[in-house]
Amino acid sequence: MSALSLENVSKIYTPRTAAWKQRFSSSGRKRGFQALDGVSFSVEHGEFFGLLGPNGAGKTTLISILAGLAYATSGTARVCGYDVVADFKRSRRSLGVVPQEIVYDPFFTVRETLRLQSGYFGLRNNDDWIDEILTNLGLLDKGDTNMRALSGGMKRRVLVAQALVHRPPVIILDEPTAGVDVDLRRTLWEFIARLNREGHTILLTTHYLEEAEALCGRIAMLKSGRVVALDTTQALLARVGGAHLEDAFVRIMHDDEFLGVTA
Ligand SMILES: Nc1ncnc2c1ncn2[C@@H]1O[C@H](COP(=O)(O)OP(=O)(O)OP(=O)(O)O)[C@@H](O)[C@H]1O
């Protein structure tokens, strides 16, 4: 059983009015914007997997489907074998998601925020683990600080902490280092790499391709909602013939003929 699996997942964003028309139309024709088109791949337990693609390729849409925040129009998505729709609670419990956008409640301190998040998963008395996360993310002295008094980079650390409160076996990070300083990047990657060594499965999206090259064992590249490359980082570099992942990425994205997908 894979940590994450996607079988022929498609997503069409339908404008609200069109959704109603579609429901009552006899043609059944789907209208709207196709963000994902027949995406299939799986991520095995313990992998550090990169999901790459240009802006608008469909990465966040895919993550939203895995996290149960958006429904696939067709296809099946599973987390640790649990269907994200039919078995939502167990699939969501298996997953920690660090979202791309910084969202927080300005009325709580860091520790209150993490206790609240623990409560969503039915966890009381989670303070020992919360302390360990705070220590590893360099936030221990900010436990009693109000969320609105944190810098942007510190708020991002709290988002990472929130994703980890329930010790999920699978962690998805959606551009976690966008706009953060070198220190946090290092702290964050050391911590995430440690979690991966300890057995957590990691799925990472990032536009910093040198980070993906250094960290990810396998990579999927999305372009206009379709998987156009899927292989180990080394095999991708060897096949496309670039010195760095950035060269390979640019070649793949600009080559309409490239369909280097391997299962
Ligand atoms: N709620 C929505 N309604 C309509 N279209 C949407 C919605 N969310 C995303 N889209 C569209 O779907 C496409 C994929 O968006 P998505 O956010 O998944 O891309 P992404 O690969 O995460 O991009 P980025 O790297 O910029 O974060 C984009 O064209 C986007 O405009």
From TrEMBL:
Name the source organism: Parapusillimonas granuli
Q: Which InterPro entries match?
A: AAA+_ATPase, ABC_transporter-like_ATP-bd, ABC_transporter-like_CS, ABC_transporter_ATP-binding, P-loop_NTPase
CDD domains per UniProt? ABC_DR_subfamily_A
Q: Which SMART domains match?
A: AAA
List the GO molecular function terms. ATP binding; ATP hydrolysis activity
Instruction: Name all ABC transporter domain ranges.
Output: 4-249
Q: Which UniProt keywords apply?
A: ATP-binding, Cell membrane, Membrane, Nucleotide-binding, Transport
Query: What name goes with this protein?
Result: ABC transporter ATP-binding protein
At the top level, the lineage of the source is: Bacteria
Against Pfam families, the record matches this protein to: ABC_tran (PF00005)
